[in-house]
Amino acid sequence: MSESGAIGVIAVTERGRTAADRLQAAWPDRVRTFTGDRGGEALRSAFAECGAVVAFLAVGAAVRALAPALGDKHTDPPVVCVDEGLQHAVAVLGGHHGGNTLAGDVADVLGCSPVVTTASDAAAASPLDSYGADLGFAVADTAPLAPAGAALLSGRPVRLEHDRVWPLPPLPPNAAADTPPESAAALLRVTDRAAPPAGGEPVPTVTYRPPSLVVGVGSARGAAAEEVGELVDTALAEAGLAPQSVHALATVDAKADEEGILRAARERGWPVRILPAAELAEVEVPNPSDVVRAEIGTPSVAEAAALSAAGRDGRAAELVVAKRKSANATAAVARLHPRGRLALVGLGPGARDLAAPRALAELHRASVVVGLDQYLDQVRDLLRPGTRVVSSGLGQEEERARTAVAEAQEGAAVALIGSGDAGVYAMASPALDFAGDDIDVVGVPGITAAVAAAHRLGAPLGHDHAYISLSNLHTPWEAIENRVRAAAEGDFTVCFYNPRSLRRDWQLPEALDILAEHRPPETPVGYVRNAARDDEYAVVTTLQEMLDGGSADVDMYTVVLVGSSASRTVAGRFVTPRGYTWRAAAHPE
């Protein structure tokens, strides 16, 4: 019996067993270690019993051991081999369905280098066999994947067809919807429509089935699964719809235990959605029934269940097959409309290794990336071929936000990027100001400039603190002044963003004057310019020294932190104590 979530780890040498222990410590609930002198037998056991395998064996030895057990590239578990010197983690099998990712994860734990040889990953292109997998896409027939992939990666013209726009990752520029059919070397098609007859396509054609359909079903008590199933199959076939695109069968709660419905769904691999009659009664349908209303409490089961399940989370849905009847059952089919996707991505303070892995993944995921020109320059090497970049300069924040939302409303997968965290003095709030409920929004946390600067200075944010922007371009100075005064009176450590520009050189001294009314002159102050970048510059000083002209080199690329009355300098580091009770006992006054 395969444990799909388990990672089988094969170790036959002392060094391999030590490394296996490190993986076990990193993933305690996932690793199953297979040891012994016969590595081939252990490898075959792990391959049969686990969802993925990491083998501390030579690639050649692993291939020879597994050769008799290999089945299908789309179903065999991923296998990663690590050499005896712990230098490389090689994705040997299943690269596109977890092997490449697993090689990277193993490399992160062991401190070695991942080795990925799949062609699309080597070219940084979206792999065709997992294209749209995170959206639930299924490949109708895997046979054309290899020739279509070869055409795509070789730069030959590839035609892209789709019934609706889904928020998919980018494809290389040679794949386009406007490629003439007669010049296309391959065809990629996204549709829930039934495939044309075999041999009807002149070029390799990969058909992706999106999870866009919901079948609604009602039945009399005791209706046979065969009758329900035949009605559903006929409804789909006569409408020219692909069963692979059905992502659920839906019915009313009164039928939750109806075995004919449940077995028909089970036989087709569809989950069942049970919906309350009161919810279905609110759904407008073309064919209501007073008889059904009197019996169940809703004028429609099949049509209403299909529309309600397809329209979850505020999604638009349409009825594509109206209610059909057999002697004891009814069926209808609804189609959901996909929504675009907007990822709000903070890149962190600047250093690549301080960007969240999820932020980098979103850049790979997006087909459109919108951002400030200087931030886009930092990440162009991470974008997949075919990604469309929309760049603008300083002062055009509203335009960037509107552009990103508009692109998502057109159905694209969009990443709106900025530095630090997208929600802290950045692009998340203006974008969400414009975004409605017609798009999906994903937020990716990032390390803020304040946090990066604080760690460079010591621990200035160890107790309550406030962030205040001193830019009065969008906020009146009177409001900023009131906030500074409130933070001063509340004895917060204060972090100032946007402290000074060429045209705004007076706000920081005024803010420091306000704080000085409530702080002793020796209060620690720290500032960091270009935190976590190559030209980072950090200073720990005092409030009095700042008032005496010590802030001359502060600019818009600088974060200024002013301590509370409890803050102090310890061994040259800026520290704001948390005020733990044990500290008073350990250091009595």
From TrEMBL:
CDD domains: Precorrin_3B_C17_MT. It comes from the Bacteria. Residues 42-121 form the Cobalamin synthesis G N-terminal domain. GO terms for biological process: cobalamin biosynthetic process; methylation. InterPro entries: 4pyrrol_Mease, 4pyrrol_Methylase_sf, 4pyrrole_Mease_sub1, 4pyrrole_Mease_sub2, CbiG_N, Cbl_synth_CobJ/CibH_dom, CobE/GbiG_C, CobE/GbiG_C_sf. Keywords: Cobalamin biosynthesis, Hydrolase, Methyltransferase, S-adenosyl-L-methionine, Transferase. Residues 213-334 form the CobE/GbiG C-terminal domain. Signal peptide: none annotated. Pathway: Cofactor biosynthesis; adenosylcobalamin biosynthesis. GO terms for molecular function: cobalt-precorrin-5A acetaldehyde-lyase activity; precorrin-3B C17-methyltransferase activity. Its EC number is 2.1.1.131, 3.7.1.12. Residues 341-546 form the Tetrapyrrole methylase domain. This is Cobalt-precorrin 5A hydrolase/precorrin-3B C17-methyltransferase. It comes from Streptomonospora salina.
